[in-house]
Amino acid sequence: MNESQSGLRGRTASPADDADRAVLALVTAGQLDALQDLYDRYKTMAYSIALRITSDASLAEDVVQDAFLGVWRNAGRYVEGRGSVKTWVLSIVHHRAVDAVRRRRPTSELPEREDVPPPALQLPDIWHDVAAGLDREEIAAAMGTLSTVQREAIELAYWGGLTQQEIAERTGTPLGTVKSRVRLGLLALRRALVGEDGLADGLAGDGGT
Amino acid sequence: MTEPRMTHDEAIELAAAYVLGALESTDEAAVRDHLATCAESHAEFEALGGVMPSLIELGDLELVEPPASLGTRIMAAAAADLAEHPRSAASVPSMAQAAPPAAEAGPAQPSAAPTPFPAPAERAERAERRERARTGRIDWVLRIAAVVAIAAVGAWGLNLQRQLDQAQRFDRAVAAVVQAAGQPDAKTVVLKSGEGARASGIAAVAADGSVVLAMRDLVATSGSQVYEAWVIVGKQAPVAVGGFTVDSNGTAAFTTRPATTPPGAVIAVTLEPNEGNTAPKGPIVAAGVATAPPTSS
């Protein structure tokens, strides 16, 4: 393991993360005012994400309600060390929003997702480690390291809620090409943000070009 | 459930699409199963998954404030959920949960360690779901409880702490009613306020005819005043089944003496000037009809 990676993992949480975890513990204990507190902190981000994905104000409200009820019922399933509370909450919002748009699309099969991502899906986030050290231009530059088609594939998946198969159909691209665009795009983004791809054992393979 | 398991290499292949949420649901479930059962390294998932939060920040997201009513809705729904599923002591976070995880290689978090599928928590949830399905009658009364609990927090934000105390006390009272309502042959009662009163609540008539009450917005009793519960069957005289006092919190959890309470009987609560009255003297503050739940599964 190289130095930057261990530094990343070993970074102590910010005061905001600590405060969030304290609030989440109270949510787990059934404190309604703690939920109100958490909601107030992230309602704007949550609603904005849901609105961007669903393009429907009323559906976005339902998504945010579902997501926060998921947080309310499953706060005990948040696993510390696998990302910040903020990331956890917003990833639940993202999941619910994607579910909502897929349900609205008649052609898509209904995903059977859980209320909250299981621990295996709660991945350590690097964002709050790198965000402080980056300005807007560097962030834009990170996105700029992706090719147009990589960026398109990732955005169609993340903000459009499309599956790889649907992206292939939508863009008239072979499925295999979409798969590699998604993968190489994410690897490029990681390298741009943290300076390495985090895959010391060469798993990244063709991502190194 | 007997589909061939996904191999480790196959799962790694799908890592990018998985963390992005871009897999078809069958593939996604297969990857999730794999992650839950495979002890090998999943560095690819971690490396790619770690990028996800930055997509939000990188996406030039236009920030839009949600309507204020959304917060009210969510808090009301959470309060109703709390009434349906009161937090048990076991769900209170322990110190172990608050402690930081040990070295990354160690299975400090049992849920993060590879476990046979399904994971224990999921199994417990399934058992709970089965339990709920079996007790269909509880669902019915829970819906009533939810409505009442939503009313309990309708004026959210006003005098928050007092409301929280009330809501929590009321939640516990509702939990007792729900438990009674789950017994065989139980009947439920929605108590609506009488003229000039704001009190409301729910009640369940247990098999022995005792009535378990959960009420809120009662005016505090003073002096010798007492709230008295009555069972009225048809045109017969009201039968006093027990009295209780209420403090400034305004909520009450009370179980009456057993009485003959067939479906259709009226349960009424009056505010009596003194205890021990055998016929009501004070005004009715709330009343409702004992109803047998529809027979379901």
Level-1 CATH class name of the domain at 137-289 in chain B: Mainly Beta
Q: Which percent range fits the helix content of chain B? A: 25-40%
Read across the widest sheet of chain B, the strand sequence of neighbours is 5-4-7-8-1-2-3-6
Number of helices of chain B: 10
Q: What is the N-to-C order of secondary-structure elements of chain B (H for helix, E for strand)?
A: HHHHHHHHHHEEEEEEEE
Low-confidence stretches of chain A: 1-12, 200-209
Radius of gyration of chain B (Å)? 26 Å
Oligomer class: heterodimer
Largest sheet of chain B: 8 strands, antiparallel
**Structural class category of chain B:** alpha+beta
Structural class of chain A: mainly alpha
Poorly predicted runs of chain B: 89-123, 130-140, 148-160
In total, the number of domains of chain A comes to: 2
Order of helices and strands of chain A: HHHHHHHHHH
Instruction: Output the CATH topology of the largest domain in chain A.
Output: Rna Polymerase Sigma Factor, Chain: A
